[in-house]
Specification:
This protein has one domain. Helices cover 78% and strands 5% of the residues. It contains four helices and two strands. It has a two-stranded antiparallel sheet.
């Protein structure tokens, strides 16, 4: 069982991670503003969202979620290919979901241009 201090630290981590992501997202959105094609700009932002926000469940503690890129990177460095593969699978699923969202956004954009 996890104690209260660990639960609070877990909540603080996710709050700080979410705030940092929002700041980073808007910085990247301003940076990508200079790219000429709307579809390319939004594809890069969707890839950023999929890469940074896809979680994977911790194998040690049920119900605790970790950013997949961070978990997969650590496990790859430590040499645990099974857990690194699980993180890469989650990243792939997150990428496919964001690709579908991006396609729907492109359809919306195309229909609103007419």
């Amino acid at each position: 069982m996890i104690d209260t201090d660990a639960q609070i630290a877990y909540g603080i981590f996710w709050a700080a991670y979410a705030i940092a992501f929002v700041v980073f997202y808007f910085m990247m959105k301003k940076l990508f503003r200079f790219l000429p094609l709307y579809g390319f700009r939004t594809l890069l932002l969707a890839a950023l969202v999929a890469f940074l926000l896809t979680p994977v469940e911790s194998p040690e503690i049920a119900g605790w979620w970790i950013p997949a890129w961070l978990f997969g990177g650590y496990e790859l460095i430590l040499g645990d290919a099974d857990n690194a593969g699980r993180a890469l699978l989650n990243l792939g699923i997150g990428g496919v979901v964001m690709l579908l969202v991006w396609i729907l956004d492109m359809v919306r954009y195309r229909l609103s241009q007419r």
